[in-house]
Amino acid sequence: MTYCVGLFLEEGLVFLSDTRTNAGVDHISTFSKMQVEEVAGDRVLTILSAGNLAITQAVWSRLQEGVWLNGERHTLRNVPNLFHAAQLVGQAVRDVYAADNPALAQQGIGFDCSLLLGGQISGAPHRLFLIYATGNFIEATADTPFLQIGEIKYGKPILDRGVTFATLLPDAIKLVLISMDGTLRSNLTVGLPVDLLLYRRDTLHVALRRRIAEDDPYLLMVRANWSRALREAYQAMPRPDWPLA
Q1: 76 and 131 Cβ atoms separated by less than 8 Å
Q2: For residue 69, which phi and psi values (nearest 5 degrees)?
């Protein structure tokens, strides 16, 4: 299992993904689930992946080699806009399904794959998509400014309460780290280190890319301060006046 989150904000985009993969307690490994295509001055595209590692790696490999879409072969480095990029990723997922699913089905293994794709291409606005295992997709909007894949339930409450389209990028870093820390505490299949990427709208280059490990001072500060704030908040609430037996 994994946890990945993308924020679609007026100022830009924020991506965060964990790195833990496991096939049982004896097979736990670290793999980056973040892939980036950056052509300075032209485009920045980021993909986060969740699901079967072999499937998601096969999708990324096909995208690197080129995928046939509308009668032409494209990669993420030459698609004309983000909508076509989402279509391209969806087609790559379908191609991997066609190639691998018969063998997976014989072994009783489901086709488990979901991806977040976001970024900006010159001449078009920044966008964020979630691509499903069927190859279709949805898009984040100003009303729904974040998307998640993987083990989403533990990190969703803070995003529901805290994230708006107007959230500033520095505040967004805090929110995604709190969201990830809640997931790390509640699910052992999600693990450090985590990969963080920030993209500022219309710059067409990555603003920040950072791997955050267990001993990262800022993560430790966020973790400690958030835990203390939660304790202080519930302790400050009045106790119920209901009669106790």
Answers
A1: no
A2: -145, 125
- Amino acid identity, residue 57? Q
Phi-psi sector, 233: left (phi>0), alpha (psi -120 to 50), beta: alpha
**Cα distance between the two ends of the chain:** 45
pLDDT of the chain, 245 residues: tens digit per residue? 799 999 999 999 999 999 998 755 566 789 999 999 999 999 999 999 999 999 999 999 999 999 999 999 999 999 999 999 999 999 999 999 999 999 999 999 999 999 999 999 999 999 999 999 999 999 999 999 999 999 999 999 999 999 999 999 999 999 999 999 999 999 988 999 999 999 999 999 999 999 999 999 999 999 999 999 999 999 999 999 999 98
| DSSP 8-state secondary structure symbol assigned to residue 121 | E
Radius of gyration of the chain (CA): 19
How much is the pTM?
0.96
From 125, 122, 126, select the one nearest 41 (Cα to Cα): 122
Tell me how far the alpha carbon of residue 48 is from its chain's centroid. Answer: 5
What structural domains does the chain harbor?
A: 3-233 (3.60.20.10)
